[in-house]
Amino acid sequence: MIKHFKNIQNLGLYEALEAETQSFADLTLTKESKHLIELFFTSEALKHDKGVNNDTEVKKIKRASVFGGGTMGSGILWLFSKIDLPVRLKVRRSEQIADAMSVVNKNYMAIKKRRRLTQREIDLKIDRVSADTEMRGFEKSDIAVEAIVEDVAAKQSLYATLEEQFDEDAIIATNTSSLSITALGASMTHPERFVGMHFFNPVNRMPLVEVIRGKKTSDKTVATVIGLAKKAGKTPIVVGDCPGFLVNRLLIPYIVEAVHLFEEGEDFNKIDNLLLEFGMPMGPFRLVDEVGLDVGYKVAKVLEEGYGERMRTSPIFERIYSDLGLLGKKKGAGFYTYVKNVAKVNQKVVGLVKTPHTFTNEEIIDRTLLIMVNEASRALEEGIVKNARYLDMAMVMGTGFPPFRGGLLSYADERGIKSVVARLQSLDHAYGERFAPSDLLVKMAKNGTRFYEE
After folding, report:
1. Among candidates 68, 69, 133, 134, which has minimal Cα distance to 100?
2. CA–CA distances in Å: residue 153 to residues 40, 134, 183, 424
């Protein structure tokens, strides 16, 4: 690289060009470059993937509606207006309309600041947004996206109302992060038009949309939602209907394992810094504070119910959420306290652990990351996602897994599948069955295969 050339500021034109050429050549041969190139080709493949195996008719979406004016609902409202889609918001209280429009305006002001849109263009887009506290003017929607509380009864009650008022071919989508699509749509008259459309927070920044089909979801519904997500500038990936779907199914064990380490005596700030150094955008404790301890805990309990002992959450997680009543950054305190956006370790949380214990960096990395690799292999084996490349792209886009490492399964390949299985077996012996290597990993280790065959 340029390091081979001394005093580069004094190089002549041809020497400088030689230095640049040499540097470029060196960089193209790095493993990081190869990982990023692989992700680029996966991204291109997803652009042309319709999510179904045939030329299914796609419904034209002319009008949309959003139910729920919270963080996710407001973000989806903004997203639809951004692509000039007339969109109507339904909330329970009038003050929620103001809150949602505040989010919409904030997102547009960020774009205006970057000079991507003029105020006139923004005004025209906002003019496409309307809202009501009553069920008026929603019946002409071609798609309704539900983003209300994660409660099965409340969601199913809403779906019954929507089916009464909407045309039979209008699509009903849910933004649920973990509840079964098949179960939610079980009592619907037309479950074929029901689908999961899971956006990630914040909607204006996170590129991934998980499209989840239930047992009765039609190809037309899936293809239509895929097309709408692409039109909105998102990257949709079709995933199977299971607790946590794909991203949360893999991410929650990572967070819970970090909490286990803390409960066993490790400094959670050290864990965060170590995983930040690994390449994650933030450590697991900062992440759960950002998402909200209430959200993280509830999703963790859904996965615990769905997968049993291997997803058993840590008792200290419940104490932090239920006993201390901490909700994370949105309320100023979680694992960290937040004053003027400055995060400091919350001593109330530290005080819950009476016996400190230090683990090696290797132990921390292996316990948090390999438990994700293990669950990823199970999801792949079950056909929850089409292939290893799509899984890795989902983790890069949905969790910020470091792109220069190529994704979670690419990371496993790089470590060596035999090495990963051996390490999981030792962790299984030390900490229990949640680390027992999957059948797929054991088979791959025996056959000497990889997730990415060269």
Report:
1. 69
2. 42, 20, 11, 40
Provide the strand spans (E) within 75-199: 87-90, 129-132, 143-146, 171-174, 194-199
Strand partners, 131: 89
Residue type, 360: T
Cis peptide, bond prior to residue 356, ω within 30 of zero: no
| CA angle 128–132–138, rounded 5-degree value | 70
Expressed in angstroms, the distance from the first to the final Cα of the chain is 27
From the number of C-beta atoms within 10 Å of its C-beta (0-12, 13-18, 19+), residue 201 rates as middle
CA distances from 10 to 13, 23, 25, 68 (A): 10, 17, 22, 61
143-146 sheet: strands from edge to edge: 129-132, 87-90, 64-67, 143-146, 171-174, 194-199, 208-213, 235-239
- Which tokens sit at 233? 């500038």
Which residues sit opposite 88 in a β-bridge?
65, 130
Give the separation between CA 98 and CA 133, rounded to whole angstroms.
12
Please state, in angstroms and rounded to a whole number, the distance separating the CA atoms of residues 411 and 119.
45
d(CA 74, CA 128): 14
Looking at the annotation, which residues are catalytic? 198
Which are the contacts of 115, defined by CB distance < 8 A and separation ≥ 6?
none
The residues, ordered by sequence, that sit 6+ positions from 261 with a Cβ below 8 Å of its Cβ are 268, 271, 359, 364, 367, 368
Could you give all domains of the chain from N- to C-terminal order, each with its CATH number?
2-47 (no CATH), 64-239 (3.40.50.720), 248-454 (1.10.1040.50)
β-pair type (87-90, 171-174) = unpaired
Query: Encoding tokens for residue 120?
Result: 């006139």
Please choose, from the candidates 293, 207, 195, the residue with its C-alpha nearest in 3D space to the C-alpha of residue 245. 195
> Torsions phi, psi of 243, nearest 5?
-55, 120
- Global pTM reads 0.92
d(CA 178, CA 239): 12
> Which conformational region is residue 134 in: left (phi greater than 0), alpha (psi within -120 to 50 degrees), or beta?
beta
Confidence class for position 1, pLDDT limits 50, 70, 90: very low
Confidence of residue 4 (pLDDT cuts 50, 70, 90): low
How confident is the model over 291-333, as pLDDT tens digits? Answer: 999 999 999 999 999 999 999 999 999 999 999 999 999 999 9
How far apart (Å, rounded) are the C-alpha atoms in residues 306 and 254? Answer: 17
